[in-house]
Amino acid sequence: MQKLPEVEQAREVMTLSQDWGVFRWLAEKKRVRTIADRAVAAFDDVEATVKDSWPDELKKAYDELVAEAAVDGTAESKKAFAKAKTEAKDVDAKIKAIAGKVKEADDEAYNCRMDAEDKFAEAERKLSTSMAKEAAQIALRSYDLREKAIKKSEAARRDAAK
Fold first, then answer.
1. Structural Rg of the chain based on CA atoms
2. Is the CB of residue 58 less than 8 Å from the CB of residue 98?
3. Full DSSP string of 52-74
4. Is the distance from CB of 56 to CB of 157 less than 8 angstroms?
5. CB hemisphere CA count around 128 (13 angstroms)
6. Would you kindly state where each structural domain of the chain is located, as residue ranges?
7. pLDDT reported for residue 103
8. What is the dihedral of CA 9, 13, 14, 17, to 10 degrees?
9. CB of 142 within 8 A of CB of 112?
């Protein structure tokens, strides 16, 4: 995966923010949010491109895992999972295992990003620079995890073709 300018800019801002005081955080929070949102959008675009290039079997296996995770007790989510499961019923177990590893990496990256967002929100409510700095560190870790997940998606495409 190549370096994304939006992500590199976000990394730079999150790193520099480690030295900011409360007033600088308050003054820069909208700009930081905009930059972070651009990084997430850039990751989303690359991830979509990679997953669009997957073979159909891998897409079906991954979609089944996504639908299973989305089951929330409603008839609609159960129906979506049943459909995805039916479509993936003939997919090789090796392909399903590959999809499972990608899903785990995606979930880990997503959860880390949500942790950062929650910590930023809490820091803003409490006007806490130490929490904002911690949130920035979590955001930096989330960028690493997202890159790792995208690399797994790229590798999955190659591994599924074997």
1. 19
2. yes
3. HTS-HHHHHHHHHHHHHHH--S-
4. no
5. 14
6. 5-161
7. 97
8. 170
9. yes
pTM: 0.92
**Cα–Cα separations (whole angstroms), residue 102 to 42, 83, 111:** 19, 21, 14
> At residue 135, what is the residue type?
A
Residue 147: C-alpha distances to residues 10, 42, 80, 102 (Å): 14, 11, 29, 12
Residue 162 has pLDDT above 80, yes or no: no
For the chain, the residue count is 162
* Tokens describing residue 97: 């295992």
Q: Could you give the CA distance from residue 51 to residue 59 in angstroms, rounded to a whole number?
A: 7
Give the residue among 32, 35, 37 at the shortest CA–CA distance from 129: 32
Look up residue 84 and give its two tokens.
């995805």
Q: How far apart are CA 96 and CA 102, in angstroms?
A: 10
pLDDT at 38: 97
